[in-house]
Here is the input.
Amino acid sequence: MASALTRPTNIVSTIPIAIQPSSDSTSGAFEPTATFGKPLVDFLTVEGNYTFHAIATYGSDCTGMREMSWSLHVDVGIDPGKTNVTTTDLPPCPDGGACYRLTFTPRDKYGNLLGPGRADGFTVQAQPGSTPSGPVTDLGNGSYQVDVCTDPGSLNPPQIGIVQPGRPPVVVGPVNFRLFLYSVKFICGEQKDDCWGCAPVRPGRYSTEINIHNYQGKEAPVLKRAIPLVLAGAAIGREPNFKAPATLELIRLPAHNATMDDCCRLQQLLFGAAPAGPVPLTIGILEIVSTVDLNVTAVYTASDCNGGAPSIDVQQIGTKLLTL
Here is the structure.
């Protein structure tokens, strides 16, 4: 028994390939029988139409022959790991959500392009936090563009689902989407005399005021997470202990606006209400995350418990880039 396969190489030419099936290609599922075949793993790796022509001969003294032909079409199945996606910033949508122009180049796992001219071979669908805001444009080089807007205040990268007929949707998005992270130390409250010598700071009164300035020309979603290490005098984060964020707050900071978090606000986040009077020492880290580069400064004030002149220090908080 033999089988011939006509395999496309381009639009107008083909290459015949001979395949010799066998009766032992059962992967051990059962004993060899009169059923002949051959697994073709990673064989049909080029888009196009394939024609199979199978010929079987049998017998010794009196021989016979059977043959059959059939055809199938192989299409490019989009692989999200091989599909490149880049973004270009667009003006925000009316509700304040960020908008981007996604340029994506769909490929299968073998690197074959879907197109050009194949915008009718797939549809795009919204993903959680991301919604297409326009039609797909064929760029004529195997790449396509679509405008996508994210939910107001979202810190997630823009994404789309690509749906091909008969296939489950695949989700693609940029691999170089960046977030800006600021880690700000805060120290608030009063440290009384330390009889045991285990206080994290010397006796005194401390305060912190953190400024967040959006100097960009677009609204900035800002996520704030407070991580307490000393809470109301108790060192809850002293090694070997560690603490996760105790609070989570998401705000939308308009363009060319600023806001601040001082000790009253930080203690309100940590305790659920603004303090009614002096509170014991509270120390921690305020983590600030945004899709927009911000200007963050911290002002630290300290004084002793004897009425001495306070000291003040202003620090510019550097940016750390997170790539999703």
The longest strand covers residues 178-191.
